[in-house]
UniProtKB/TrEMBL annotation, chain A:
Organism: Kuraishia capsulata CBS 1993
Pfam families to which the protein is assigned, alphabetical: Cytochrom_C1
Any single biological process term in GO: mitochondrial electron transport, ubiquinol to cytochrome c
GO cellular component, one term: respiratory chain complex III
Protein name: quinol--cytochrome-c reductase
Residue sites binding heme c per the record: 40, 43-44
Homology family: Belongs to the cytochrome c family.
Entry's EC annotation: 7.1.1.8
Top-level taxonomy: Eukaryota, Fungi, Dikarya, Ascomycota, Saccharomycotina
From TrEMBL, chain B:
Chief location of this protein within or outside the cell: mitochondrion
Stated name of the protein: Complex III subunit 9
Role this protein plays: Component of the ubiquinol-cytochrome c oxidoreductase, a multisubunit transmembrane complex that is part of the mitochondrial electron transport chain which drives oxidative phosphorylation. The complex plays an important role in the uptake of multiple carbon sources present in different host niches.
Keywords on record: Electron transport, Membrane, Mitochondrion, Mitochondrion inner membrane, Respiratory chain, Transmembrane, Transmembrane helix, Transport
GO terms classed as biological process: mitochondrial electron transport, ubiquinol to cytochrome c; mitochondrial respiratory chain complex III assembly
GO molecular function: quinol-cytochrome-c reductase activity
Lineage top rank: taxon: Eukaryota
Membrane-protein topology: Single-pass membrane protein
Species whose genome carries this gene: Kuraishia capsulata CBS 1993
InterPro entries for the chain: QCR9, QCR9_sf
From TrEMBL, chain C:
GO BP of this protein: mitochondrial electron transport, ubiquinol to cytochrome c
InterPro entries noted in UniProt: Cytochrome_b-c1_su10_fun
Organism of this sequence: Kuraishia capsulata CBS 1993
Superkingdom assignment: Eukaryota
One Gene Ontology cellular component annotation held by this UniProt entry: mitochondrial inner membrane
Protein name: Cytochrome b-c1 complex subunit 10
Molecular function in Gene Ontology: quinol-cytochrome-c reductase activity
PANTHER family: CYTOCHROME B-C1 COMPLEX SUBUNIT 10, CYTOCHROME B-C1 COMPLEX SUBUNIT 10, MITOCHONDRIAL
């Protein structure tokens, strides 16, 4: 495949979570969620992320409750069997912008804006790819983006396109790999233990082999 | 402790298999606790500023009002 | 040659199979030590289990606080 066919390779950026022992920048996850909410959620769903998973990652319990309650979800029918709605709760999943795939395609010239829950894991280049895609549009801002009117997040002033792209990419990486921080912590423990045991086994092997390694074999020719 | 005879250690820990196995588990229990505490402390120090607990502290300063514009 | 006993006079101790007071006296402390070893074994494998953390580990003097997990209600997923 030519570069034009499978797209340009994105450059490798210094993500703060790139290293073997580096966690996500949770402040970036927080800002990134806001970018998703204000920009991307108009077309892209995030079906696999439940509101409660944001708690203690990027938002407090009260903040997430407030955000969830802004949305309506289908409730059990009332006593007469009529359908009704209720405000969102922590156990619910983040709602998507369209009721179904057909509505999504109709609103986007037949193309289906993909769900973003796992997008970072689902594309070659992961974070680098997503970031480059978002900042690669030839216009000043990614298509369809409306920068928040005068509002800026803490403490980055002003919120540049590249900053927003970085934050939303970090947020999407968290959505795709919520176990990331704990995985690296456990990985560190595993590496230390396994390396330690390996070194011990090297010593034990040498110890057990000393008689073999230091034996002397002699040949005494028979006397004529 | 370092001045103790090897035979004291032997008699106290290694002679009876029940005591030996028991001390292996007791050491494992203590080691697990200390190891996890140590690694987690290092990990959190290495990632200082990025963790949720650090971000949460800063929330109070900047104000959370921006979150609710929908 | 009068009054000497020809045969050994023996009594059988109370027993159930091989288990008699002598063997019990011998093995009880050893089994006790094994019970202690088994207990430590259970502790090693249940270290992350909240039931055991609350009943046993938190009560360890000086180090017990390591197992006390307080969660800020703002971080609670409920």
């Amino acid at each position: 495949m030519t570069a034009a066919e499978h797209g340009l390779h994105p450059p490798q950026y210094n993500w703060s979570h790139n290293g073997m022992f580096d966690t996500f920048d949770h402040a970036s996850i927080r800002r990134g969620f806001q970018v998703y909410r204000e920009v991307c959620a108009a077309c892209h769903s995030l079906d696999r992320v439940a509101w409660r998973t944001l708690i203690a990652v990027s938002h407090t319990n009260s903040e997430v409750r407030a955000m969830a309650e802004e949305f309506e979800y289908d409730d059990e029918p009332d006593d007469q069997g009529n359908p009704r709605k209720r405000p969102g709760k922590l156990a619910d999943y983040i709602p998507g912008p369209y009721a179904n795939e057909q509505a999504a395609r109709a609103a986007n010239q037949g193309a289906l804006p993909p769900d973003l829950s796992l997008i970072v894991k689902a594309r070659h280049g992961a974070c680098d790819y997503i970031f480059s895609l978002l900042t690669g549009y030839p216009d000043e801002a990614p298509a369809g983006v409306v920068l928040p009117p005068g509002g800026n997040y803490n403490p980055y002033f002003p919120a540049t396109t590249s900053q927003m792209a970085k934050d939303v990419t970090t947020f999407l990486n968290w959505a795709a790999e919520p176990e990331h921080d704990e995985r690296k912590r456990l990985g560190l423990k595993a590496l230390i233990i396994v390396s330690g045991l390996y070194l011990v086994s090297v010593w034990v092997k040498k110890f057990k082999w000393t008689p073999v390694k230091h034996r002397k074999i002699t040949f005494t020719p028979p006397k004529k | 402790m370092l001045s103790e005879d090897y035979s004291t250690i032997y008699n106290l820990v290694f002679k009876r298999n029940s005591v030996f196995v028991g001390s292996v588990f007791a050491t494992a229990f203590a080691f697990q606790g200390f190891f996890d505490y140590g690694v987690t402390s290092w990990y959190e120090a290495h990632n200082k500023g990025k963790l949720w607990k650090d971000v949460k502290l800063k929330l109070g300063d900047a104000g959370e009002d921006e979150d609710d514009d929908e | 040659m009068s009054g000497y006993i020809k045969n050994v006079v023996s009594k059988t101790a109370p027993h159930v199979g091989q288990i008699n007071p002598t063997t019990v006296k011998k093995w009880t402390p050893i089994l006790g030590l094994w019970g202690g070893a088994a207990l430590f074994g259970v502790f090693t494998f249940t270290e992350h289990w909240p039931l055991f953390q609350q009943t046993f580990f938190q009560k360890i003097p000086y180090f017990g606080d390591y197992w006390v997990h307080t969660l800020d209600p703002e971080d609670s997923p409920q």
